[in-house]
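User: Reviewer 2 asked us to show a designed sequence for the structure in our supplementary figure. I'm pasting the structure tokens here. Could you produce the per-position amino acids so we can include them in the response letter?
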């Protein structure tokens, strides 16, 4: 299924999530391991193919596989450029491979790999041009008469070899742009618990809900387009929001635009309260309220559940808990769940004075 949908990012993401749910590990594309397609890479493990990377066509992939079969693994960007047919795999291909994480097995940061591309291409282009002319340099003649040192040409140069890796946000942004999804992490992973606790639906679940259903979706704005209505020329916004399961279009109509505009920022992590609208079998969210992540708990939480597991349900612990609740009064009801072995968990709503 993954191979058959390699050109359809939306379906690809659904199948990748299903594979993870089934306990199947998904490995990123790798210059030294991948073919063009998705392949089995071990027990309950799949390896993404190079064909999944944007800007990397079949001609370039065939050149990579041919060079790898003839010369062994690519250990540096220099060895990659040296052995590829650069008429088929140009600068854009090399840079896309690096940004997508397909060259991570070379053991350098992606920033260092990308910084070495110019010099590697310049040297490889000169060597290939000379070879096509039938020329051999003195050093190539010498190396041809001595045992090969290994599959690669050189190690990282002092200037590029130890470059610090890009910030996680930039690294993931390149992955998303070139693969259509994140594979080494997710920009929302650090706030996953909060998003799952306070959101009432995910982007994937919206299509299963009836039109006009009220929902709260938590995620990150990735695109914001300011526009005006055709009839009244009033300002509104069309936004793209990404959550842990996909993307959803968010519409901010003129009636609430002025109120919500301060929250409309790319990369802002927010909760959008609104209503579901279905158009062309695709769900949209009509925004009515937008709450920044840091204010989500105080605004959106409906109750607090405290779970007590044995051993630990002791008088001293309960007295400490009672003291904490008296010191920090609030408005949220509190449910105490007792989780005992071999019995069904018992949930009790605490008295009104404990909120």
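Assistant: Here is a per-position design you can include in the supplement:
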């Amino acid at each position: 299924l993954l191979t058959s949908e390699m050109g359809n990012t939306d379906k690809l993401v659904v199948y990748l999530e299903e594979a993870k749910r089934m306990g199947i590990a998904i490995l990123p594309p790798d210059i030294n391991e991948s073919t063009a397609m998705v392949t089995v890479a071990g027990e309950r493990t799949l390896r993404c193919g190079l064909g999944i990377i944007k800007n990397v066509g079949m001609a370039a992939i065939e050149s990579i596989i041919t060079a790898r079969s003839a010369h062994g693994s690519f250990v540096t960007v220099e060895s990659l450029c040296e052995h590829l047919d650069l008429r088929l795999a140009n600068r854009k291909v090399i840079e896309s491979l690096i940004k997508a994480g397909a060259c991570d097995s070379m053991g350098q940061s992606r920033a260092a790999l990308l910084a070495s591309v110019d010099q590697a291409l310049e040297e490889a282009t000169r060597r290939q041009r000379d070879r096509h002319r039938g020329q051999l340099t003195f050093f190539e003649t010498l190396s041809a008469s001595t045992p090969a040192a290994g599959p690669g040409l050189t190690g990282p140069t002092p200037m590029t070899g130890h470059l610090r890796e890009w910030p996680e946000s930039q690294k993931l942004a390149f992955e998303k742009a070139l693969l259509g999804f994140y594979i080494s992490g997710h920009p929302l992973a650090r706030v996953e618990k909060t998003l799952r606790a306070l959101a009432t639906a995910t982007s994937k679940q919206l299509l299963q809900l009836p039109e006009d259903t009220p929902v709260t979706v938590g995620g990150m704005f990735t695109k914001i387009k300011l526009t005006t209505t055709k009839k009244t020329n009033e300002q509104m916004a069309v936004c793209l929001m990404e959550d842990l399961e996909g993307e959803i279009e968010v519409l901010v109509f003129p009636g609430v635009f002025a109120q919500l505009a301060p929250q409309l920022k790319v990369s802002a992590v927010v909760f959008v309260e609104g209503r579901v609208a279905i158009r062309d079998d695709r769900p949209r969210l009509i925004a009515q309220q937008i709450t920044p992540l840091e204010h989500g708990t105080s605004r959106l939480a409906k109750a607090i559940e405290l779970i007590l597991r044995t051993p630990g349900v002791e008088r001293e612990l309960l007295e400490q808990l009672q003291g904490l609740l008296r010191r920090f009064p609030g408005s949220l009801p509190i449910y105490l769940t007792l989780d005992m072995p071999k019995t069904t968990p018992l949930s009790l709503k605490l008295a009104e004075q404990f909120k």
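For the response letter, you might also mention the following. Residues 147-154 have pLDDT under 50 and may be disordered. The chain has twelve helices and eleven strands.
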